[in-house]
Structures are given as structure tokens and as C-alpha cells.
Amino acid sequence: MVACDHAAGVWLIPLLESRFSIAEGFDNWYTAYSFFCLCLCACLFGIFCLIKFVYVQVWRAAISEFIVTALLVFVNTAGAITCLQAGFTSSTAAISVITFFCLAFFILGAAPASGGHLNPAITFATVLTGFCSPARGLLYVIGQIAGSVIGALALKVVVAESVAEKYGLGGCYLKNTIYSDGVLQEVGIEPGPALLAEFVFTLVVLFFAFSIALDPKQFQVTGPILAPFMIGAVIALMSFMSGGLMAVNGGYTGAGLNPSRCFGPAVAMGGSLWDGHWVFWVGPFLSALAIAIIYHVVPPHHVELYRSRSDIFTQIGNMIKGKSSSAPA
Q1: How far apart are CA 57 and CA 302, in angstroms?
Q2: Residue 123 to residue 60: CA distance in whole angstroms
Q3: Tell me: the pLDDT tens digits for 30-79?
Q4: What is the percentage of the chain residues whose pLDDT exceeds 70?
Q5: Which residues cross the membrane (predicted)?
Q6: I want to staple 126 with a disulfide (CB 3.0 to 4.6 A). Which of 35, 62, 131, 150 is the partner?
């Protein structure tokens, strides 16, 4: 972000100097208003690193996130539906195994092009901690959401309509309607407990994602091959644990752990999949905010490796320190 701020100055300061001069002054309100708008644009340009939007590699990475997320949603939800259709003794365990292999391979494949986020919660957390610029993060999230919708719509075309309706196209939901003793009942979990589960399980995923893949020193140990499999294993484990809650609260699919993964089937199927859908967004984004605060307050022991970061909290801290040091004694 520091480089972006400098670029903003290079582009916009000459523009301001050519538009206004000290001799002219602010002759009228229109001049003052124009100057204010240009200054505001300059600030926003620097803060959000909008110059990143012109980089071809950023768009290529975002397109990679779009394509791989679409494939991931298609394959992963197809695997979940297959496990449910097969009638395994423990469909939750079977789905977790499918999730492990899908995530490990897709993260491994997407990592060279985009870093293999494939999850808006991970992207948001990396933006807050300075590992990803806001412009890149915005394009990533847009690509992930669009990819999820495309993948879910493609799966809906392939899967029989009765199967898609029965399993909600492998989507995420808090409650479901079932027949029990000849009576139609709605079973599941309330939004409050579901939000807490989403927050905690996603926080665990983000903690290990940062510790394994985003920690420069730890990444030297795990490497580019082992890290995706370890992250996939953590997500599969959290999916299994949260999915086990279905045994007590039948109808709850477990923690989504990935907002885009839940969004695609909800768009494709609609209906009850939108009930409480906000939980699968708010929970992970709260987890991303929490992990960012943790990394700022309690940084890793090898802090020197992180001094080059330009996260939002560091930017704010430097601004405050700068103002304090410049204040008269």
C-alpha cells in the first residue's frame, strides 16, 4: 500500500498543481469544492490501491479464482450429493473425505496463479493483515462469488431435479423439513448457535491457514506441496465436526466455512436455502476480523519477517505515531 500511495502522488499531485495555484486562491465555492473532490479522490486512490486494477497479473489471478472456484463448487457439491445418495452409514465422514481431497488438489492447482484462496473469508483476512491489497481482494471475492454461482448452476443442469430438491443441491442450510411419524416437521438449529459454530470453526481454519501457508518461516517447513494438504485436512476435520451436529439437530448441514461455497447453491436453488443464509457470511467474516486482530496484537515470534507488511492496522498505527511525533511538545 505504501507503493500505491506513492503512485497516487505521482499521478495526482501534478494534476492538482496544474488545476490550482496559490496565486489563484479559492475564488469561489466551485473551486473549493473541486479541490476538495480531487483531494478526496487522491486519498481514496492511495488507501484502496486502485492502481492495482490496471495490473494484468491481478486480473489473471482473479480469473483463476473464478475458474477454480467454479470447478471446486461443482465437484465438491457433486461429491456431497453422491455420498448422501449412496446411503453411507456416516455420510458426514464420507463428505469430509471428499472435501479433503477436493480442497487439497484445487488449492495446489490454483496456488501458482492466485495463491489458491478460493474463499472470501481467507481473502478478507489477508487484506486486513496486509498479505493482499484491497483491489486484488475485491477482484478475488467477485471472482469467487461468480465462480460459485456458475459451478452451482452447471451442477443443477447435470443433477436430476428430484435429487437437487432433496439435498438442496448440496448447499448450506440451518433447517430442513422432514417427515417423522407421518408428520411434517421442521428440524435444525437456530441462527444464534449456528453463527457461533460458524465463527469458531472458521476461526480454526483461518488460524491454521495463516500458520501453515502465510507464515513465511513455517512455510519453509511445510512447503508448497504439503501446505495445501494440511489446510485441506483442517477444513475436512472442521466440516466433519460441525456436520456431526446434524445428528443432534437434524437438518443442519454444519458450518459452511466458505461463504462462496454456500452462495452458489442458494442462487441456483433458492427457496429455503436463503433462510439464515446470512450466518454463512457473517460468521466467517467475523472470524477473518478476529484473526487479523490476533495477528496484530499477538504477532508471531519471528516478527522481523513481518516488518515489510503493510496491513491496515499498521497503516493506522503509523499515522497515529506520525501525528504524535509531529505534535509540538
Answers
A1: 30
A2: 16
A3: 555 565 666 666 555 555 555 555 578 889 999 999 999 999 999 999 99
A4: 71
A5: 30-54, 66-88, 94-116, 137-159, 194-214, 226-248, 278-298
A6: 131
Q: Are 95 and 243 in contact (CB under 8 A)?
A: yes
Beta bridge partners of 290: none
CA 291, chain centre distance (Å): 13
Give residue-wise pLDDT tens across range 218-261: 777 778 889 999 999 999 999 999 887 765 556 788 899 999 99
* pLDDT for 9: 41
Residue 302 has pLDDT above 90, yes or no: no
Instruction: Give yes or no for a contact between 103 and 231, defined as CB atoms under 8 angstroms apart.
Output: yes
Please determine, for residue 181, whether its predicted confidence score (pLDDT) is greater than 80: no
Angle at 73 between CA 72 and CA 78, to 5 degrees: 100
Per-residue confidence (pLDDT) for residue 54, from 0 to 100: 59
State how far the Cα of 192 lies from the Cα of 78, in Å rounded to an integer. 29
Q: CA-to-CA distance for 10 and 209, rounded, in angstroms?
A: 37
For residue 179, what are the contacts with CB-CB under 8 A and spacing of at least 6? 185
Strand partners for 130: none
Domain boundaries, the chain: 2-46, 56-313
The 10 Å Cβ neighbour count of residue 151 is 28
The answer to whether residues 283 and 199 touch, using CB atoms and an 8 Å cutoff, is yes
pLDDT averaged over the chain? 80
- Provide the whole-model pTM: 0.76
